Amino acid sequence: MVRRYKYPRFLSRPRGYVVLLLLSFLCTMYSMLHFIYYKPGRANALLYRYQAMQETVIDYVYYGGIRRRKTEKNMYIIYIYIYDIKGSASTPAQTIPYLPLNYNYSNFDVCPEKFPEMKGQIYVNMTEIPLSEVNTNFSHIIQHGGSWEPHDCIAAWNVAFLIPFRNRFEHLPILFRHLLPMLIKQRIKFSIFVINQEGDDLFNRALLLNIGFVEAMKIDHSFDCFIFHDVDHIPENDRNYYGCTGMPRLFAEQLDIHGYRLEYEDFFGGVNGVTTQQFKNVNGFSNQFWGWGGEDDDFYTRIRHYGYNVSRPPNNYGKYQSIVNHHTQERQYLGRFSRLKHSVERNFIDGLNSLHYKKPTIRHYPLFTNISLKLRPD
Ligand code: BGC
């Protein structure tokens, strides 16, 4: 006897199907919102990737591979751009002559910004390794606590690297493995600070950076340049010079997960740097961005409001790869959009001049100084 499959009774009426459709729609919406809220970085990356692919297709169809790009002066320039849909923009040949190998400079000269060993594209290796291995490779070069300075010339900048941090232990060795050799090649005098937020409260990247700034200045008040560096951003080109300039600088101009494009014209996140004076002039970051997102947009408004423009690395040097594994992402800060509407009004009452925090624990490790503390929204 053939057994007949019995549908659930509610599906025998048309209304049953409507209910089923509605339920699956609600489930999809819920999963999407959950993903956007808990994995905002991934969600953004997917969105930018999608936009990049769309633009690429349009370019090929309408312009035959000729891309329009906005310059800093808000004018369009036309340039030939060969873009691969998988997401990596082809690197233009790096033909700019760097210093010849026999170039001479004395110990009393300020280090130049270009050295022959800065070859351009570097090999990015995302394999996880223990920190102890990187310590072994570098601790005979780097001073305990994470400082280094050149001895064959006078460093042009004394840079404090501030890395906002929570639970990304597997990322630190990957970053160090690429960053340290690059800085040494560039003859940058540097100190590395990891600013660690303890506990489970909402993450506040900008507040950590303000605290890092104040604490680093207590340790060495001669820092004249600060670079705020996300731990999961790995530089791809050693000609991306990690010194400051007359204008605040966005180092991470093109990220692989965003299709190697500038996310948007006002983007100022990931890896950026300012001189000590510039940071003081804009009153640092806002302290009020709890959760993922918005603090960098607010910082951009401060910078522009003070009259600065953003500078970016030349020749596509500002390319970075993002470490995507093990992303315990911070939750979205949904209130950021309304807060961003009042960035200008808040600028001089919210920042370095309104900073309060409990004394952090400071520990020196072979390759960095760790500034650790708990933060809690008021
Ligand atoms: C957020 C920024 C973030 C940017 C790029 C924006 O929506 O507000 O904080 O850097 O997306 O991912």
Automatic annotation (TrEMBL):
Q: Which domain of life is it from?
A: Eukaryota
What is one GO biological process annotated to this record? carbohydrate metabolic process
Q: What is this protein called?
A: Beta-1,4-galactosyltransferase
Q: Where does the Galactosyltransferase N-terminal domain start and stop, copy by copy?
A: 111-245
Species name: Ciona intestinalis
Lineage summary: Eukaryota, Metazoa, Chordata, Tunicata, Ascidiacea
Could you confirm whether the keyword Disulfide bond appears in this record? no
Ranges of residues in domain Galactosyltransferase C-terminal: 256-324
**Function per UniProt:** Catalyses the transfer of galactose onto proteins or lipids.
Q: What class of enzyme is it?
A: transferase
**Pfam families (alphabetical):** Glyco_transf_7C, Glyco_transf_7N
